Amino acid sequence: MHINSTILSGQGVLNDLHWLFKAHHHVIFITDKNVINLPQVSSLLATIKTIVPVVTCIDDIPPEPSQHDVANVLAKLSLPVADFVIGVGGGSVLDVAKLVSVLTVANNNLTLKQLLDGVQPLRRCASLLIPTTAGTGSEATPNAILAIPEKATKQGIISSVMLPDYVCLAPELTSSMPKMVAASTGVDALCHLIECLTSNLSNAVSDNYAVLGLSKLFAAIEKSVVDKDNFGARLNMLWASYYGGAAIAHAGTHLVHAMSYPLGGKYHIAHGVANAILLVPCMAFVRDAVVDKFALAYDLLPDAQLALTTEEKSYALVDYFSQLIVRLGLPTKLQQLNISSHDLPYLVDNALNVKRLMNNVPKPITEQDVLAIYQSLL
Description:
By secondary structure, the protein is an alpha/beta fold. The protein has 2 domains: 6-174, Rossmann fold, CATH 3.40.50; 179-375, Dehydroquinate synthase-like - alpha domain (Dehydroquinate synthase-like, alpha domain). 50% of the residues lie in helices and 11% in strands. The strands form 2 sheets. It has a 6-stranded parallel beta sheet with strand order 1-8-5-4-2-3, sandwiched between helices. A two-stranded antiparallel ribbon has the order 6-7.
């Protein structure tokens, strides 16, 4: 899969985007109620309005959007169709922006239902994605994830056509994240990187992205959570998140994400929080199948003990994950999310049905294995 996006990054980069807007007639600006009130975002939108003749602002994208939320967005858009879509926000906003870019482009004749049914888009209008969290990597993935309330789960729409023309990594935008959001989205990026590194579909390209991302993430994740004004650490987290998305585009996640989908789909648990709870038991389960890859990742830790054997490093990496989740103050048990043993049959069945990801697990896994992982979190 080719990623042809132009990356613009660094503190203050939002002030240098004027040239992007001059060639366009109708911009759709997509964000949410929290992000639209950030001074930098308000200023960016005001600048766009002075340059572009028609600007449509959609600022009410909810967390974990469903196909109905996207349909509501499309219903608000009037003709003529747009020639530039800008998404500013977390993964939910960016996923919706990607979908809008293919559903509003001229002469596409494509519906959201067709996308959900697997029909591939052939084109999109120009697009710019600006993440305000450092975790989802949506700006670098061909995926758009929607909740499907009728099935109490999530579904991914996947097409390389949705990859944007431009990505803007502005660390000052992520400083508005509360600590828990910074922590959980950071762990989401960590899951992307380590799962792609160990996926059945991993390859030289995805491994390269994963190693680059893990190196930046290990050095920056705790600093970025503790100090919201450490823009160097926050920019490193944005790059780690981007590399995680790029790794997904070339490989794919596996067990953590498959098992977190039903937690978000039915119980509306934030994606990063669900991943944080599952990270340690899932990585402990796959460890013996990916010892060399875990040792490679362990060597990237700032305080790695390089004299350890490869096997010892693989165990030490899982220990690091366990300690990191505690240090970040993230939940470690399902009861903290009001989930009990009564919910386990549903969770197991729905996790196993995420076959796109379960097929990437680097060792055979059974229904009993999945049940045991969930049980270990009670």
